[in-house]
Amino acid sequence: xxxxxxxxxxxxxxxxxxxxxxxxxxxxxxxxxxxxxxxxxxxxxxxxxxxxxxxxxxxxxxxxxxxxxxxxxxxxxxxxxxxxxxxxxxxxxxxxxxxxxxxxxxxxxxxxxxxxxxxxxxxxxxxxxxxxxxxxxxxxxxxxxxxxxxxxxxxxxxxxxxxxxxxxxxxxxxxxxxxxxxxxxxxxxxxxxxxxxxxxxxxxxxxxxxxxxxxxxxxxxxxxxxxxxxxxxxxxxxxxxxxxxxxxxxxxxxxxxxx
Length: 259
Description:
Blueprint: E1 7-11, H1 17-27, E2 31-36, H2 43-46, E3 48-50, H3 52-64, H4 70-74, E4 82-84, H5 86-93, E5 97-102, H6 109-121, E6 123-126, E7 130-133, E8 139-144, H7 152-157, E9 159-163, H8 168-178, H9 184-199, H10 208-220, H11 228-233, H12 242-249, H13 252-256
Parallel strand pairs: 1-8, 1-9, 2-5, 5-8
Antiparallel strand pairs: 3-4, 6-7
Helix pairs in contact: 8-9, 8-10, 9-10
């Protein structure tokens, strides 16, 4: 934070990368602004858009009153009709915000290059309004699930940290804190089984969020232990792929033997 460099967090799905940004925003009492990346996202969806519907209504009102002077027309592209998207909102908020750029690996190369430019100087130019620049930059957190490799230029701009699955004892602590109704004994059994699942060759190994879902499901059903039959009944709360389910079902006794 003192270096005012973005923080790039990489790791498997469900290890808590997004949660780190939420915690930082809470601890430092800053607004959390989230830009969720996806395939096909463009600069307009990240920066700003014009409120065309409102502009059209304004034009109709002007027409009814026969107002057409240049100043009135210019106001159609003023701040009043500008819809802030996450990046512009974060730049204006400056150091009062935490900007979370989530799953940046899902965006394309062009958008990644655009992000690099914005993160370099935290300013943008809006032709109709002018230049907007952050006096002090926001705290920026980028997350990636490594569905593709990010370009070296973006990585060089950031501080890098890899987040692995938590150690079993730590994961038990997470379960008991996030799901207070779950006993520590049950949490340990669930974590032991999830740890074994992660060792298997699954397409989508369970993350911490799946561990929490499984523990909460078992607690809701009044279960105090975890055996093959119980695991079979509640498998959908921890395994989310059809092929993985077939693989896991054939090994439930072994998976739950240490639980």
